[in-house]
Amino acid sequence: MEEDILYHFSLSTKTHNLPEMFGDTKFVCVGGSANRMKAFARFMHRQLNLPGLPEDIKDICEGTDRYCMYKVGPVLSISHGMGVPSISIMLHELIKLLYHAQCCDVVLFRLGTSGGVGLAPGTVVVTDKAVDYAFRPQFEQVVLGKVVTRSTELDEGVANELLKCSDELQTFPTVIGNTMCTDDFYEGQGRLDGALCSFSHEEKLEYLRKAYEAGVRNIEMESAVFAAMCRACGVKAAVVCVALLNRFEGDQVTSSHDVLVEYQQRPQVLVSHFIKKRLGLIP
Ligand SMILES: O=P(O)(O)O[C@H]1O[C@H](CO)[C@@H](O)[C@H]1O
Ligand SMILES: O=c1cc[nH]c(=O)[nH]1
Questions:
Q1: In terms of C-beta density within 10 A (0-12 exposed, 13-18 middle, 19 or more buried), how is residue 144 classed?
Q2: Which GO cellular component does the record give, naming just one (predicted)?
């Protein structure tokens, strides 16, 4: 293409020098909420001891309110909204951006929240495989009216490195497990507290038990397309989500605001440790 307009980022190959702006990017961290990803960028700024004030970091996508994007040294922090369609649009444009910027050896992380399956609240789950509602490690995309099935396996080396980082930090429990990706927060995740409720408490528990037996340790809403697209495009990727609650014990997220804020920082702390190690800033 003579010009590639990354419409939802409000960036283009004609109006922006993408190699100059992004060429040194080595780590991309994405997560649902715009405020969380801004806080993560500020946190990374402090962790990497970069010059200037963390509060002065500018949103590169300020020309649109679809997504926000911050760059701190070799780290990009981007929000993706909720659900598969929202993250998949962002990933198409991100992967093209990395290509246009001639980036190499980039690792992508999704830093998120999730519902735990048989885990204490606050536990961090590093995803082994992202699985669908039937616990299959695959993502189905409809292309030209036909279903295309893609694998959702993530990078085993990065996942093990993250687990090692957690052992070194010794600040919160971390496990490796499968992550179930759903298209809904309520009925789709077996919740009884939505506006629609079409099954019993026993049926819910039976489904969660089956999920647990299939190795599922948490449930969220983007991991499958994230894993499938990164794999298909040859980008190393990991999914790191904190469990906000144990779904065997309830459906409502009842922890206080302060507790939830601290939980959401856990994936950030883990990935920051990983990045600092990769950059040789800590042994
Ligand atoms: O915390 P984030 O990254 O938004 O992810 C999780 O939280 C949202 C639901 O509350 C879904 O997007 C789910 O995947
Ligand atoms: O239960 C939960 C919590 C956060 N995000 C989800 O998708 N599910």
A1: exposed
A2: cytosol
pLDDT, one tens digit per residue, over 43-94 is 999 999 999 999 999 999 999 999 999 999 999 999 999 999 999 999 999 9
Question: What ligand 2 atom has the least distance to the C-alpha of 115?
Answer: 1
ipTM of the complex: 0.99
Both tokens of 65, joined, read 């309110």
Please give the distance, rounded to the nearest whole angstrom, from the Cα atom of residue 233 to the centre of ligand 1. 23
DSSP string, 90-103: HHHHHHHHHHHTT-
* Nearest ligand by distance to the CA of 246: 2
Centre of ligand 1 from the C-alpha of residue 112, in Å: 6
Q: Measuring from each residue's beta carbon to the nearest atom of ligand 1, which residues come in under 6 Å?
A: 31-33, 82, 112-113, 185, 220-222
Domain chopping of the chain, boundaries = 1-105, 111-255+273-283
Q: Is 135 in the pocket of ligand 2 (CB under 6 A)?
A: no
The tokens for 88 are 């998949």
Per-residue pLDDT of 160-173, as tens digits, reads 999 999 999 999 99
Assigned token pair, 11: 């960036």
Report the nearest atom of ligand 1 relative to the CA of 112: 3
pTM: 0.98
Mutating to test ligand 2, I would choose from 111, 187, 189, 247 the residue with most ligand atoms within 8 A of its C-beta, which is: 189
Q: Which of 132, 112, 146 is nearest to 224 (CA)?
A: 132
Return the pLDDT at 131.
98
**Would you say 191 is a known binding-site residue?**
yes
Count how many Cα atoms sit within 13 Å of the Cα of residue 145 in the half-sphere of its side chain.
0
Return the CATH number of 111-255+273-283, one of 3.90.1170.40, 3.40.50.1580, 3.10.250.10, 3.40.30.10: 3.40.50.1580
